[in-house]
Queue: 3 jobs
Job 1
Amino acid sequence: MNRGKPHLLALLVLGPILVTALDTCGSYGWKRIARTTALNPEAGAVELASNWVVGLPPFVERSRRIAARDLGMASREAVVEALARLGGLQVGWMPVDPLGFTNLARELLLRDRPRESLSMLTDALVRDPTSPSLHRLHAIVLLALGNHRGGLEELAIAEALAPGLRSPEVELTPEDHRWIRLEGLRLRRDFYPRRPTETAIALARELRVNGDRASARNILSEFEDHPEVRMELARWAIDEGNPQNAIELLAEITSWAAFPRSLRARAWAMAAVALDQDGDVAGALEAAHSALRLDPRSSTPYVTLAGLAQRRGDSAAALEHLRRAWGMAPADTRLLVRIAVVAEEAGKPADALLALGRAVEIEPESPDLVARLAALQLRTGRFTEAAVTLSHALDRFPTDPGLLRLAEKLQRDVGIR
């Protein structure tokens, strides 16, 4: 009757040891293969496709950390084999996780079998319907199969979930981009129901940019008592040359102490612009200083003061205000571009170069910022610096038209000299 007890005791003792050994082996194998993949993607892909340690549950669990881009430099054949094995293991050990289905879909796409990948992508999206990158990948497959409408709808969902996401990249016409942007904004209200005002303002802005002002105003009519909406409408009134309307819209916000100081400061700053447009220079300056007193740590009042100085033709004073704004918002690349423009107007190219150089450091993936820097270097006769800037930029953005035009200009300018 007691013969089974030694075996049971042995299992109780050996079980935890075996689990620990498997976890240690899987952890060590993961670290080694991850290191190999980082140094040599081809060798890493081969390991993923063939090494027995990849099949251990602890390794499969850690394999979530492997991204498709980590294998980007490996050969197509090696990546296919790696994704097939890894995806199969992930589906087996983690059936509620979308990662395995996604990797199997990628494997089928690399094998030029897009129609078969659709079922895998559908399974992945069932498990994670809020993944914008999955919706974009699904869109690529639908577009490749000729389902243009379905592809655009998937891209709109991705835009609603993560505005501005561009990975994986999809080639589209400007008209398709506009439709996706608008539809994404319309869908965003369903995905983010707790931010209806913010979504309505974003959608109204897009409609207005596209020329549909009536629809834009209709969108905001539901929220017309909200202070952010009133400020948006005041901004439109300024753009349309109706400063009195803007001043009226902002008066309630600036005068009501119950609103947050930062909100009132922004309203005063906007009122300064409207008053200046209305010809009340003294009132504009007082409004800007009211904004500064309410929120001295914000860049907005300084930017407003800079704008007032610019309209008076005082570039030096404008630059000084913008420098102070930069101190409050050191990572604002739009502010840095404005500093560069005003500094050049003020005859201080070194300050302009510094501002654009810092902007490029903050957003190295922006070819537009690099082009601005290179153009300024050319205008100020810094041809060697421009050549270095353009050389590095064209390595990263070889087809960017703005950079290519500047490279041609550099060749002409250097040839003339």
Job 2
Amino acid sequence: MAKNNPVKFAQEVKAEAKRVVWPTRKETIVTTIMVFIMAALASIFFLMADKVFAWGINALLGA
């Protein structure tokens, strides 16, 4: 089994970290807004689905 050199590992991590491309401020803002919009749409969809199922079950059970 090969021994790992911690110094070499740290150098490789540093080199890899330099290759990371961070999103711009505009990309981050747009993506965040899209996440909030999609979360709101999903919550509305599931609210409506819940209401339809509740109405159907109430209709079946006669409550």
Job 3
Amino acid sequence: MQTTKEARYERMLTAQQVADILQVSICSVRRWSDQGTLKFYRVGSRGDRRYWHEDVLHFLETSKSMPINGQKK
């Protein structure tokens, strides 16, 4: 039987799932996470990264106004 906490973690996205949604490499997802641009949470005893879908959508919306490769829009 799963606890409520475990069930809640299962609804979170993995870094690979986020990479698939954003159509980027998993390295990009990790880099944005390390930079604090994409919010993530550490879960489980290994400290795996997990993401809320709402945070990914927020990142996507705010990244539209960010420069790409140092270029101004």
